[in-house]
Amino acid sequence: SISQPAISSSIYGRWRLLHTDNANTASPIQRKAVDSSAFPIYQDIVVDQSKQQLIVSQVVKFNEKFELKVDALASTSAYPLDELTERKGDGNILGLNVLGISKIGDDATVDDRRPDSRIDFVFDEGKFEFGNDFSIPYPVPFRLPFLRDAVKGWIDITYLSDKVRISRGNKGTTFILLKE
């Protein structure tokens, strides 16, 4: 595996989801959103050069002109984001698994033996895009203060090559992706 994968130049670009194990800690929405058997799903990891900001986007392509794109502000040692403080809650809202159950505390600790292998993120906005001309906002208010902690997460990169990435998310889900 490439060392320091979260800050390696190989991490940037479009990744197509090949497989996920859909951990039972995922939310019902997440289970559907990462089901690549129905529609192609991608993860874009890019730097917004104008803001020097790392962005991780989840993209579900329904067809060539229609997709759902959910953007997250991301943080690594190369692109730190002050807003990304440690997550406090596990995601249960009134005892319900609405947004998925996240690891917190000691279970969420970064592996010191694998420096720069985590990308932290906070979901920021989403939209349904209909070609280049029209879009509709995704109806999840990611920026509401009482939801902000619940929409934080991370991706631990367990393996990275120029073509393949294996990652584990903050809810325990494993993702296998292929570089496009």
TrEMBL record:
**N-terminal signal peptide:** none
Tell me where in or outside the cell this protein is found: Plastid
Q: Give the residues annotated as coiled coil.
A: none
Q: Mind listing the UniProt keywords for this protein, alphabetically?
A: Plastid
Per the annotation, which location comes first and is thus the protein's main one? plastid
One GO cellular-component annotation of the UniProt record comes to: plastid
- Where's the Plastid lipid-associated protein/fibrillin conserved domain? 9-177
- Give the transmembrane region(s): none
Q: Which Pfam families match?
A: PAP_fibrillin
PANTHER family, sorted: PLASTID-LIPID-ASSOCIATED PROTEIN 4, CHLOROPLASTIC-RELATED
Protein name as it appears in the record: Plastid lipid-associated protein/fibrillin conserved domain-containing protein
Q: Source species, please?
A: Fragilariopsis cylindrus CCMP1102
Q: What is the lineage of its organism?
A: Eukaryota, Sar, Stramenopiles, Ochrophyta, Bacillariophyta
